[in-house]
């Protein structure tokens, strides 16, 4: 990822999700083709099972992180509060998911997404992204997903 000078963005300004469904705390880095986000695994999280974040929670985290890559293009560059637009995004396909480890309560995960392809119809954007989720430097999840994103 290239350094854009944009970091630690409050993702709740750009996603419709709210706790307990908000699975990303902040954007660490973002550029035209990629994003890195962080998420602290809290004990009271909706997808906590036996002291770990479940598979469903990891997929939702990856989807929310990945949506930032294309979603950012619907906002002005200096709109760090997300006031300029309202978007809705859908996972249209989960093409691949490999879960190597479930993160524990109290850990922070970093999820990175990279744009593979994008097609804009004028009303909707269809895209495909690869994601990787880490605890420290250790890869715990990788996935490939397709999304549909449009303004409301």
UniProtKB/TrEMBL annotation:
Q: Which domain of life is it from?
A: Bacteria
Alphabetized Pfam families for the sequence? ApeP-like (PF22817)
Q: What is this protein called?
A: ABC transporter permease
């Amino acid at each position: 990822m290239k350094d854009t000078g944009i970091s630690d963005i409050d993702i709740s300004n750009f996603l419709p999700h709210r706790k307990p469904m908000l699975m990303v705390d902040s954007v660490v880095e973002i550029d035209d083709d990629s994003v890195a986000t962080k998420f602290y695994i809290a004990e009271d999280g909706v997808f906590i099972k036996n002291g770990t974040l479940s598979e469903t929670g990891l997929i939702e985290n990856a989807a929310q992180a990945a949506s930032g890559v294309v979603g950012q293009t619907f906002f002005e560059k200096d709109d760090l509060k997300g006031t300029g637009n309202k978007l809705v995004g859908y996972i249209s396909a989960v093409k691949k998911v490999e879960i190597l480890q479930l993160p524990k309560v109290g850990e922070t995960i970093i999820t990175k997404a990279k744009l593979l392809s994008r097609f804009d119809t004028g009303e909707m954007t269809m895209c495909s992204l690869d994601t990787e989720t880490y605890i420290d430097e250790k890869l715990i999840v990788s996935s490939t997903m397709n999304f549909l994103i449009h303004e409301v």
